# Entry
Amino acid sequence: MFPFLRLFKDVWLASRQPRFKTLTEMHVSHHICWPHDLDVFLELNNGRALTLYDLGRSAMAQRAGLVAVLRRERWNLTMAGSHVRFRRRIRPFERFEVRSRAVCWDDKFMYIEQSMWKRDGECASHVLYRAAATDKNGIVKPPRILAALGQQAISPAMPDWIRNWTRAETTRPWPPMQD
# Structure
């Protein structure tokens, strides 16, 4: 089940923090790995990790003013792709933080980077999302989103590692093979 109570708590806390001046500012949220977050190996389940990343993005969107813009414009958000690396285990009752920020955007998508950090300073996982806002006509282009936020529409330079991923994604077959 989706952790709605955690979501409401994180968005509520984010609404009491200073609003971002730019979409690329970093939001940090704090979490605990509860028993219902575990897999059979007694560590944070990889699917639950992605759900906890959802919470971090939601709180980040709140601080950026994006939640209000989405409601006003009747837009939705969707994830168009992700790439995840898991490197360290998060154990039961372990405290960790999720760091979330928009890195850059292109003509269709925003690229959001998130990471989970253990208290000892080790990065447990890292994910890159390709996100889009949509309306009844399809994808809402990033310049329009930024204008609605009252921000500059010029993207920071796209890092090579993100550009390489977007190029690789263009070679991926869709729909996937069925054999």
About this structure: Helices lie at 4-15, 46-64, 66-73, 142-149, 160-171. The chain has a mean pLDDT of 96. The chain has five helices and six strands. The first strand starts at residue 27 and ends at 32.
